[in-house]
Amino acid sequence: MRIEAARKALLRKRAGETALQWPALAGALAADFLPRFSEWAAHRPTAGSVRDGWDLARDLASRSELPAPAVVELTEKRLLFSYRGRSAPRRRRAPRFARCQGRWLLQIGGRISTLGSR
After folding, report:
1. Which residues share a beta bridge with 96?
2. Distance CA 24, CA 112 (A)
3. Long-range contact list for 40-45, CB < 8 A, 24+ apart?
4. Apex 29 CA angle, 66 and 65, nearest 5
5. In this structure, are residues 15 and 30 in contact, taking their beta carbons and an 8 Å threshold?
6. What is the mean pLDDT of residues 111-117?
7. Residue 90 β-bridge partners
8. In sequence order, which ranges of 1-118 are alpha helices (DSSP H)?
9. Is the per-residue pLDDT at 102 higher than 70?
10. Could you read off the pLDDT of 22-65 as tens digits, one per residue?
């Protein structure tokens, strides 16, 4: 019983840390964030809150369950960092751009600009 309580507390802490790094993902899932994260993370070791959020977002995207605000957040992270799932994300140096929800996102010097409108 104590072990189960500790496990749940650690998952809540891990979810909270991930929500700080991925606010759009946590906000879009709202009340479903903690249960969805806990279910996803229950049998995965943590690799840090940035990677946990990234891996959860990719998992949801692969099942077409990633909410629209989180799609933009994931696209922005992909513009800023290189991450393949095996090692820590590395900051990109070269400018990059991507189309997301009818707009162009441009990353130059670590800053994201939005070009165009819907």
Report:
1. 107
2. 16
3. 41/11, 41/14, 41/15, 42/11
4. 20
5. no
6. 85
7. 82
8. 2-21, 23-29, 33-41, 49-62, 68-80
9. yes
10. 999 999 999 999 999 999 999 899 889 999 999 999 999 999 99
